[in-house]
Write the structure tokens for this entry.
Amino acid sequence: MQYQVPKGMRDVTPKESYKWQYVEGLIRNLCSVYGFSETRTPVLEHTELFLRSVGDTTDVVQKEMYTFTDKGDRSVTLKPEGTAGVARMFMESKLFNEAQPTKMYYLYCPVFRYEKPQAGRLREHHQFGVEVFGAPRASVDAECIALALDLFGQLGISGLSVNINSIGCPECRPAYNTKLKEYFRANYDDLCETCRTRFEKNPLRILDCKEEKCKRIAAGAPKIIDCLCDGCKAHFDELQASLQAMDIHYTVDPMIVRGLDYYTKTVFEIISTEGQYKGTVCGGGRYDCLLEQLGGPNMPGVGFGLGMERLLLVAESFRPIPQPERVGVYLAAMGEAARSEGMRLAKALRSEGVKTEFDHVGRSFKAQFKYADKLGARFVAILGDDEIKNGVIKLKNMETGEEAATPIQEFTGIIKTLLER
């Protein structure tokens, strides 16, 4: 029987893992500069966590979650997004008792959504995200946007559009929902089945529908930006002022509502408008009621998430991701005494930080040279019976073809000097 990876999931092979490591390195450095610390949460959570946070009227909960009953007859779900798990961890670990704000990021975060696989969006994909709890000012919303843009800039991604909106709070949203219902009631029969379900529970979700007929109807709906309370309006004004202070160009898009129920006030999307892959590459916003909604303290939150697979596709459409460091030395040994000495030298070189390879297949000298060339080795060190007898190593520069003999005892120091050049 031939096994294959499940549909909508993929392997990362050794030949491409360097791309992930390169981007992950940029992310870790950038988050450190911005004062964020890493957090990691389980891939499996109790289903109720997502019902209460993401919302039972969202596509994620209604159509996309991987939910099952475990052996203890508990309903559990493979996490479909990162924020809910971080919020649960924040409360369970009582981090709210520490000095605020708490600034966190997650990087190795596999998420699962049962949807049609597409470029950069698989049923299992990986998210990078940041979460900030305990900071009510809109300046931190702008800081999150700036962090994402810095990452895209370091990857050479250009042609980005920053779109922002405010979707209000529990104080002003009920009145807006009433206006939405009045508008959509006249078009109720033309809405898709899902949106007719949302009409009573959460009419705001209709604005996020991807069905063309619903998008056409929603285009004429009242704008929540015109219905904000004084607090939400002041917050949105501060967000815009903060972005302007950092010279970040943006567009106010009143149709952005995001696809999850926990958002309040700020919502934003960063969209790629150039290159091979166009569309949203990052999305986020504020969720000031999430912790309280989950039984925790009344404490504001804000953050964003982006898919690593899509980020890699977009980044590589602009410029190649740098190749990993080449092999410094390939130790080509023939004969048991030479192999033993080669293993000793390999360990000594690696302890000095030199990227070293050694033959474990039993190839001929000719085959070892061919393999070293395939690896891109800068030097090949040749060890045979004659070399062991004379206490020397033949060293070949694979770029120039030059060969020279060097004493075995001085080899480690000599090769380090050559590689540093």
